[in-house]
Amino acid sequence: MSKKDNGGLTVIFAYLNEKNRPYSAQDVFNNLQKQHGLGKTAVVKAMEQLALEGKIKEKTYGKQKIYFADQAQFAEVSEADLKAIDSRISDLSTQVQAISQGCRQLDAELKELNSSLTTEEMMSEIQELEEGCSGYRERLEKINSATNHVTPEQKEMVYKERHLYVKEWKKRKRLASDMMGSILEGYPKTKKQFLEEVGVETDEDCKVTLPST
């Protein structure tokens, strides 16, 4: 047997004794291949040899073989010792749970800190906001210091005048359209020719749109 095979036997034997639980050859291969570079065939042969030599125990369940440490090599444990071990396991489980909860809380705080602005970023943002506020204040001061403000009363008067002018505009346009229609009834030429002869320009010629009231 090669030195590598002997090393595999030693590793597997120590592993089964340390874990002291049943494993298949596949389980041992999966657990040891990365750390020790053992091939599956080598693991199977080593476990069969250890079982043949009586160093470990072998049980067959259907088509699968299970291997585990020889329990005769371990000292007997009293009921009191088992209870003490169970109590220690319970205490350690409680500690693990508390530590895990603390880790989750720290992880949440870390994520919150990572998503928060740094002091430099915060100062830069404050400076940008202050500059923006300063600009708005300057604009407001210019507006307040202007002397050409339009009062609500003046604004209302302008709207009323506009409404009056638009109304008169429509009225006069309608009258002119009626008069031109009467003339064109006996006019031998087209409307366009008539307008050119009398020198009349329409809103369309001036590209003016009649506003709505």
From TrEMBL:
Residues 150-206 form the Leucine zipper with capping helix domain. Belongs to the HOP2 family. PANTHER family: HOMOLOGOUS-PAIRING PROTEIN 2 HOMOLOG, TBP-1 INTERACTING PROTEIN. Its main location: nucleus. One of its GO terms (molecular function) is double-stranded DNA binding. GO terms for biological process: homologous chromosome pairing at meiosis; meiotic joint molecule formation; meiotic strand invasion involved in reciprocal meiotic recombination. It is found in: Nucleus. Transmembrane segments: none annotated. GO terms for cellular component: condensed nuclear chromosome; DNA recombinase auxiliary factor complex. Residues 10-69 form the Homologous-pairing protein 2 winged helix domain. The keyword Oxidoreductase does not apply. It comes from the Eukaryota. This is Homologous-pairing protein 2 homolog. Keywords: Coiled coil, DNA recombination, Meiosis, Nucleus. It comes from Salvelinus namaycush (Lake trout).
